[in-house]
């Protein structure tokens, strides 16, 4: 690997670690010390070499909770007449993601010390040192601990070297659940070098911070709102209307309100947002409607500025990784600020509203709901019923946000992937 190519790869590796669960772990210094020790120990024994030999590769970055549901849906959308490999870190995936639609998972480690040490070797460590030297003084910064940042770069460098070693030149296509995640990046890079087409699903409602620039060539947009967003902000990428394969069916929105669910997503609330949410909860509570503050799966308390004011008017619910869809019942009214859970709730037939300050940048789909929430009143004379005009608007918006669901969505994706494996990119451009 020549110096210019090495410098480019070093920079790609450093940049690829900007998104992922490794940024939210505790005890980073301890993890880094354990990681360096295990990687050195792992170099003494032969590294594992995942056997990847299929035409279609499915890379799963998030195999937990609703991520496992998307992973299963994507696996079911792969062309049946092609050989298929599912690539994931089996240590971190939920049991539902270990055998996706009958396809066994090829174990490829993520960044965790207890995973990545199995792919270490003296040859790869030597290449890592050359890559770190090529990066120079521009040390990667992901956290408050420089020691942990150095470990993350080491672990990711080993993963890039593994992917370049094992992705076969005979592969015809790579699909991933989220292309910007640190787990997916090495596989995208390896496929790009070999000229293998790449496709990414949309894991949550996209924002510029989390989804741009896109790394894959094709993105599976949920609906017209996302396709317009990607077309405007990522003009070099194919955005095709795929829908949501992970949602089985669409349910019409009903207007009765028996409980209000306020979704916490660890965001910092502006004073106006906290006041409006607290006032809404108080009004419903005084009308005899229960109000629940549903915490983010990674939170045990209302983390983030302003949320304690909202919590004072609600029953606080710690849910762990239980999907929102499994906790909702008819009569729930779901409210949030930036959470993509509102989209799932809307498609499942629950009325939703966004309480975001007009100046707050919002993800694509949430911005569309926020516009409806501002333009139409969703509080009528009787707090137990939403105005019919608002309910009708939500039913129309449901189809704009998500163009297809379930088997119809899977069939669209299957047809797209078939054409890409056959090298028919022109027709994909025309359809997208």
Overview of this protein structure:
The chain is of the alpha/beta class and 432 residues long. The protein folds into two domains: 3-241, 3-Layer(aba) Sandwich (Rossmann fold), CATH 3.40.50; 259-401, Rossmann fold (3-Layer(aba) Sandwich), CATH 3.40.50. 43% of the residues lie in helices and 12% in strands. It contains 17 helices and 13 strands. It has helices at residues 3-16, 28-42, 66-77, 113-116, 122-135, 146-166, 185-193, 208-211, 224-233, 271-286, 307-311, 324-327, 341-347, 364-375, 388-401, 406-421, 425-431; strands at residues 56-59, 84-88, 99-100, 103-107, 173-176, 198-200, 218-221, 238-241, 259-263, 290-294, 315-317, 332-336, 352-354. The strands form two sheets. It has an eight-stranded mixed β-sheet, with helices on both faces. Helix 14 (364-375) packs antiparallel against helix 15. The chain is globular. The two termini are 37 Å apart.
């Amino acid at each position: 690997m020549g110096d210019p190519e090495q410098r480019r790869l070093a920079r790609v590796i450093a940049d690829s670690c900007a998104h992922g669960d490794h940024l939210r772990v505790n005890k980073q210094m301890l993890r880094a010390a354990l990681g360096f020790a295990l990687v050195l120990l792992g170099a003494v024994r032969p590294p594992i070499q995942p056997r990847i030999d299929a035409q279609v590769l499915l890379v799963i970055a998030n195999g937990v909770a609703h991520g496992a549901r998307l992973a299963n849906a994507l696996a079911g959308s792969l062309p049946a007449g092609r050989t298929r490999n599912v690539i994931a870190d089996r240590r971190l995936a939920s049991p539902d993601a270990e055998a996706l639609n009958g396809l066994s998972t090829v174990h490829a480690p993520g960044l965790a010390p207890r995973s990545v040490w199995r792919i270490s070797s003296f040859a790869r460590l030597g290449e890592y040192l050359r890559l770190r030297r090529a990066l120079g003084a521009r040390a990667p910064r992901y956290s408050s601990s420089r020691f942990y940042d150095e470990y993350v770069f080491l672990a990711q460098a080993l993963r890039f070297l593994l992917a370049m070693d094992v992705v076969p030149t005979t592969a015809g296509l790579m699909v991933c659940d989220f292309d910007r995640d640190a787990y997916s990046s090495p596989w995208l890079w390896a496929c790009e070098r070999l000229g293998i087409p790449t496709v990414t699903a949309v894991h949550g409602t996209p924002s510029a911070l989390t989804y741009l620039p896109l790394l894959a060539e094709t993105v599976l947009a949920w609906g017209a709102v996302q396709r317009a967003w990607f077309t405007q902000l990522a003009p070099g990428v194919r955005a095709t209307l795929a829908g949501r394969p992970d949602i089985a069916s669409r349910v019409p929105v009903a207007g009765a309100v028996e409980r209000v669910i306020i979704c916490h997503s660890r965001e910092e609330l502006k004073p106006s947002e906290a006041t409006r949410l607290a006032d809404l909860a108080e009004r419903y509570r005084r009308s005899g409607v229960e109000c629940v503050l549903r915490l983010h799966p990674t939170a045990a308390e209302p983390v983030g500025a302003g949320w304690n004011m909202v919590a004072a008017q609600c029953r606080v619910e710690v849910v762990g990784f239980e999907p929102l869809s499994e906790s909702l019942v008819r009569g729930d009214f779901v409210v949030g600020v930036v959470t993509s859970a509102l989209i799932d709730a809307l498609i499942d037939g629950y009325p939703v509203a966004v309480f975001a300050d007009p100046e707050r940048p919002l993800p694509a789909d949430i911005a569309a709901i926020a516009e409806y929430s501002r333009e139409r009143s969703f509080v009528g004379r009787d707090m137990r019923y939403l105005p019919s005009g608002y309910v009708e608007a939500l039913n129309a918006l449901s189809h704009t946000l998500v163009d297809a669901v379930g088997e119809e969505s899977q069939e669209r994706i299957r047809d797209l992937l078939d054409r890409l494996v056959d090298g028919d990119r022109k027709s994909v451009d025309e359809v997208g």
